């Protein structure tokens, strides 16, 4: 099970995410309370091991600008969380995670239009285009087909519900942001608990 922890804004949290055993770490470059500047991300990434993949989250940014920021900061993967077209996804020089808001079963039909590395399925969102902390009906994913690219489940996940979410939706990976925060800040104990639960490891007390 691939685990991504998103919305990291400082070095201490980034090191804790890497130490937790997470596979992907996410930095939000879009409008959000979790937005970080490329210069800050570049500094953080310098301290991270190669084993954790660095994901940049963008919303409706131009492919040229995304490729420029990715090369500058040292990103490995690009997550597109807006209205990006299949053509725009192909203009990204990095593996792409394309996010799809899921409200109804027919929303899954769009996944097959995109030739991307991963499809991320998320709640339609609140104030920003992601990171709402709300879950959608995981049962809808039972209608996903093997022709869809590897599915990452997101939206309202936290340490207490991630195992049920995995059992219900059977995704390739899971992604969390709000669910590992306390009072709007990343909480290291919740990050550790989330990764442990998602990877179905025994909790160390
Ligand atoms: O986290 C954000 O602030 C954010 C802003 C804009 C686009 C995407 C964002 N994050 C992604 O949102 C989902 C779900 O987050 P949550 O766990 O429900 O808080 C996740 O894919 C984040 O990568």
Automatic annotation (TrEMBL):
It catalyses: N-(5-phospho-beta-D-ribosyl)anthranilate = 1-(2-carboxyphenylamino)-1-deoxy-D-ribulose 5-phosphate. GO terms for molecular function: lyase activity; phosphoribosylanthranilate isomerase activity. Residues 3-196 form the N-(5'phosphoribosyl) anthranilate isomerase (PRAI) domain. Keywords: Amino-acid biosynthesis, Aromatic amino acid biosynthesis, Isomerase, Lyase, Tryptophan biosynthesis. The keyword Transcription does not apply. Its EC number is 5.3.1.24. Pathway: Amino-acid biosynthesis; L-tryptophan biosynthesis; L-tryptophan from chorismate: step 3/5. HAMAP family: PRAI. This is N-(5'-phosphoribosyl)anthranilate isomerase.
